[in-house]
Amino acid sequence: MIEHMSNLVIVESPAKAKTIKKYLGPNYEVMASMGHVRDLPKSKLSVDVDNGFKPVYVPMKDKEEVISSLKKEASHSDTVYLATDPDREGEAISWHLAQLLDIPLNAPVRVTFNEITKSGVEYGMEHPRSIDLDLVNAQQARRILDRIVGYKLSPFLWKKVRRGLSAGRVQSVAVKMIVDREKEINAFKPEEYWSIEAKMTAPSSKKQFDAVFTGIDGNKTELHSKEETDKVLEKINGAEFKVTGVKKSVRRKSPAAPFTTSTMQQEASKKLGFQTSKTMRAAQQLYEGVEIEGMGAVGLITYMRTDSLRISDEARAAAYKYIEGAYGKNYLPASPKIYKSKAGAQDAHEAIRPSTPEITPERVKDSLTAEQYKLYKLIWERFIASQMANALLDTVSVDIDANGCGFKATGFSVKFDGFTVLYEESKDDEENKVLPVINEGDVLKLKNIEGKQHFTQPPARYTEASFIKALEENGIGRPSTYAPTISTIINRFYVERDGKQLKPTGLGEVTTDLLKDHFKQIVDTKFTASMESSLDKVELGEKDWVETLEDFYKDFDATLKKAEVAMDGKRVKVPDEETDEVCDVCGKPMVIKIGRFGRFLACSGFPECTNTKKIIKPTGGVCPKCGKKVLQKKSKKGKKYFGCEDNPTCDFMTWDTPVSDKCPKCNDGTTLFKKGGKLFCLKEGCGYETVIKKEK
């Protein structure tokens, strides 16, 4: 008979279980709960709002087998350790597991790992504690609050707009932010303004540099029309451009702080083009452990849900060791770089960093997927750079006079590259350029000068990166909620992607306006932020979770009853989106509607004509299987893919993008497809591929 292990450790995922098992040895069995094991049932509210908001939890239907296995293993284990993620959700999972497995809540069996390395796992196992009920109650309060809002408000939307709609405490205010931005854009009235830009050379060099007009007789002057601009140009005509002042200085440029969840998501969006969900998926994998050649399963980064900028002394020392070895002592800072977390940040975890800084991205490249490698490289470089010396820039600002008209030229040169040798944060604006040697009194040679017309621009639509930043700045949601919030509002067709931009649909606009009219608080950013702050206080043990729910529910319930009366017998119509397409049955224009499975084309003559079609876009590509057209399509989850127009007769489909280039090997007009930095042919038996040449 095989003797069972005396200790059971329960984590959420098989990957995490595998990595931890390696460090714990033969006296431990490590099993995965596969996430949450109990929840509020979907079919009813399951919260007793009249009796302390008592929730009714049930085992999740797809977890019955997992729960049975855990119970069986726990029954013949001396000790059961609950090692779920070190955050609110993880604490709640441990609490649910404790109840299912009859573990006393005060038993010191809760262990957490900030990083899944040998030292991180050993430290966690050496410091077990009891379950933190404040953390659990914070999660319960959020879950119950979201259930109440969703369960009570969604049916109101079904009756007044359309069945199947949903509302949420965070999702509805997120949609409103995107709708409000679209309204700002539509209401924006551009204003004309002009600039005067000159190209000139200095006596020391033939290299041209730029200077811009600043004002007349030492006063800043704004130009609002061509007439005003032409007057200045007339005044300058034939004038001598003389340098009246040269100001030189040394500017210190500091590295960006190591990543928090929010800044990681923003930077991965800007630099890697990753959607937030992709970033978090890859980060989870890197945290839980990846099979590395010669090392086995290794957790490569610290816990990825954090808004703290703190790092350990050990991590700093490891970074210094690497920096000195790779770049020399000059690249170490004069004193340790300490980054201050923003007010209200939860400081339970460190910033996101490589768990073992000496493991470079190149060392593990061959063991990682492309996504994992790109994100690990970003996290590793950001962290190492955050511990490096400042860059030093020699800056120069040149004042120029031409008959009383002032111009300014600015530039810089790198004196010491410091951290920039490794990493620079992505910026939306361009840096200044290097200027030639210019001295006070120099007479400059004008090469070209022209007035340029400009118009003020409306605020830009949100991208995922800028939206996450806005959510964080407004205190909407928490690091763990940004990715699921964006996914939810897109999957429910309140918002759509337009390239990298987030744009509200007609459904999103109508629903938001209805909620603004009748549930002002639900979509109010300040109210949502204050609720988030109250829930944080529950987490810190500073506020009672039941009182927090009572404070919210009293007003919410009254508002709901008032809205039901105000909207009695009324329905709100979702406007159809017009198209250029014509119905091939009756000849009337087709419009875009939103149904259960997303957007589709429908005849505007409904109900007389019931013709509907999928929204498809021709690509100019040719199917490599049958030679018919390749169309751009969307999956049920809204993801773009490409398929043959003759589907289902022809089953060709791909995520790769067709391009205008044709396969030179086939030489029969076969379309090439693009993925990453490569073009390749998908025709069976061809195998042609080439690297895309970068434009200089």
Brief account:
With 696 residues, the protein is of the alpha+beta class. It contains 17 helices and 30 strands.
SSE blueprint:
Layout (H helix, E strand, L loop, with lengths): L6 E5 L2 H11 L3 E5 L5 E2 L7 E2 L5 E2 L2 E2 L4 H12 L3 E4 L5 H13 L17 H9 L6 H28 L10 H17 L4 E10 L7 E8 L2 E2 L5 H11 L4 E13 L7 H12 L3 H13 L1 E3 L3 E3 L14 H15 L33 H4 L5 H17 L4 E12 L2 E12 L26 E13 L8 H10 L8 H10 L3 E4 L2 E4 L1 H13 L6 H15 L5 H22 L10 E6 L6 E7 L2 E6 L8 E2 L3 E6 L6 E6 L5 E5 L8 E2 L2 E6 L8 E5 L2 E4 L7 E3 L5
Parallel strand pairs: 1-2, 1-7
Antiparallel strand pairs: 3-6, 4-5, 8-9, 8-16, 9-10, 9-15, 11-14, 11-16, 12-13, 14-15, 17-18, 19-20, 20-21, 21-22, 23-24, 24-25, 25-26, 27-28, 28-29, 29-30
Helix pairs in contact: 3-5, 5-16, 5-17, 6-14, 6-15, 8-13, 9-12
Largest sheet: 6 strands, antiparallel, barrel
Radius of gyration: 30 Å
CATH architecture grouping of the largest domain: Orthogonal Bundle
The proportion of residues in beta strands is 15-25%
Distance between the termini: 70 Å
Shape: globular
User: Which structural class do you get from the secondary structure elements?
Assistant: alpha+beta
Question: For this structure, what is the CATH class of the largest domain?
Answer: Mainly Alpha
Structure annotation, total helices: 17
Query: pLDDT under 50 segments (min length 5)?
Result: none
The pLDDT mean sits at 91
The level of helicity is 25-40%
Per DSSP E runs of 2 or more residues, the count of β-strands stands at 30
